[in-house]
């Protein structure tokens, strides 16, 4: 019987290696995988190639420097990088200093819980396939929203955004996150 | 913090995650998330969608030197930007706006005080200090107003708001918030337009108080 893929995502593995061992090889692989996609993502919102590279470099350096803050129990690797990318993009383009929520204080002796991280990764990959299956016009709206091209009013006017299965995936992820965060305060 | 009953709407959390919320509102949202597990989880869920979109993005080749340049920068010493931790009732994002110092209150009369944190074209954000039993002058709104309670509580026509709760006012809301008995009520209030006062403070005085 074919087993579903039971692996922690490669991004998480690389990021944890960078966090725990300052592993340059892992960082280099992370860069090779992520930087071209990040550049593609940043350029979707109309940013020119040169500035997009400036942002990508800044994001990757921030990933290296802030890796100690990455906690795979609480954030999916690409989700963590998404927020850094948006923050750096805004800081660079708008010269604004974005207000960032206080970090939750870590419980001192939390053992990594592989099954939790795995479940979290699996939910994220299901979310990914839900997005892949969207109609092109629906996907475009989602992209616009998460690239910062829609105001909160426009997002709330898009009834059903994020649409259908994506929304139910978000809800599933939400209940897991909620449970995880409750244990932390 | 389990008592929070008034949260940030999902569309605003999505706009915050994507960075498309005007700075004054972003400060309120970041402050609320600092004390609200529910909305922190919602932010995480939106970030997961954003992350999925990055992973699915078309790859665009990085120029040849960029990676080498960056790898060479890894060991460069950096002066980190100062991080302002929460202090007393003020969450980190407020402490950042205050640059780590206590608020500088200006009296608005009747014991009500304000401390303007930022004022710009896209709106303004301020701290309000309202003694127990005192009303914030009756006002209606030209635009959107977010009010986050940091200490004490207030009640108005729409309900009771305590620490961590956010009231969302728009052009339809005419209300008279009154601070409840107990500690003075301290709020973080952000608007994208000047407030219109209906009573107490004549409109002519508005530019003076910049409220």
Give a verbal description of the structure:
The complex is a heterodimer of chains A (185) and B (211). The model of chain A has no long low-confidence stretch (mean pLDDT 82). By secondary structure, chain A is mostly helical. Chain A contains eight helices and no strands. Chain A has helices spanning 10-21, 24-44, 49-66, 77-94, 114-132, 136-146, 152-157, 164-182. Chain A is 67% helix and 0% strand. By secondary structure, chain B is α+β, with helices and mostly antiparallel strands. In chain B, 29% of the residues lie in helices and 26% in strands. Chain B is built from six helices and eleven strands. Chain B has a six-stranded antiparallel sheet, covered by helices on one side. Chain B is elongated. The model of chain B is unreliable at 196-204 (pLDDT under 50). At the A-B interface, helix 2, helix 3, helix 4, helix 5 and helix 6 of A face helix 1, helix 2, helix 3, helix 4 and helix 5 of B.
């Amino acid at each position: 019987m074919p087993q579903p893929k039971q692996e922690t995502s490669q991004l998480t593995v690389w990021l944890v290696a960078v966090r725990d061992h300052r592993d340059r090889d892992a960082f280099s692989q992370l860069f090779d995988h992520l930087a071209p996609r990040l550049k593609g993502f940043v350029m979707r919102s109309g940013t020119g190639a040169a500035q997009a590279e400036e942002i990508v470099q800044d994001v990757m350096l921030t990933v290296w420097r802030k890796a100690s803050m990455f906690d795979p129990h609480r954030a999916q690797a690409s989700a963590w990088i998404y927020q850094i990318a948006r923050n750096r993009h805004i800081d660079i383009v708008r010269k604004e200093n974005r207000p960032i929520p206080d970090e939750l204080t870590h419980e001192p002796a939390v053992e990594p819980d592989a099954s939790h991280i795995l479940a979290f990764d699996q939910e994220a990959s299901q979310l990914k396939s839900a997005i892949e299956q969207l109609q092109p016009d629906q996907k475009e709206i989602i992209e616009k929203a998460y690239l910062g091209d829609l105001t909160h009013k426009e997002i709330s006017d898009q009834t059903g955004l994020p649409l259908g299965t994506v929304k139910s995936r978000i809800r599933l992820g939400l209940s897991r996150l909620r449970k995880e965060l409750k244990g932390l305060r | 913090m389990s008592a929070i009953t008034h949260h940030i709407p999902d569309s605003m959390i999505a706009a915050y995650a994507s960075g498309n919320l005007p700075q004054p509102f972003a400060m309120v949202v970041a402050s609320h998330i600092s004390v609200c597990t529910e909305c922190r989880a919602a932010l995480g869920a939106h970030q997961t969608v954003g992350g999925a979109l990055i992973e699915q993005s078309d790859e665009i080749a990085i120029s040849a030197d960029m990676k080498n340049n960056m790898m060479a920068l890894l060991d460069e010493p950096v002066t980190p930007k100062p991080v302002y931790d929460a202090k007393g009732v003020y969450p980190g994002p407020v402490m950042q706006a205050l640059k780590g110092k206590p608020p500088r209150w200006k009296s608005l009369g009747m014991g009500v005080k304000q401390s303007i944190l930022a004022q710009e074209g896209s709106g303004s954000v301020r701290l309000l200090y309202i003694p127990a039993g005192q009303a914030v002058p009756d006002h209606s709104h030209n635009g959107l107003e977010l009010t986050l309670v940091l200490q004490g509580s207030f009640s108005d026509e729409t309900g009771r708001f305590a620490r961590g709760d956010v009231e969302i006012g728009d052009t339809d809301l005419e209300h008279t918030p009154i601070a409840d008995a107990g500690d003075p009520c301290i709020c973080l209030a952000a608007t994208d337009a000047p407030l219109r006062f209906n009573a107490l403070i004549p409109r002519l005085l508005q530019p003076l108080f910049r409220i």
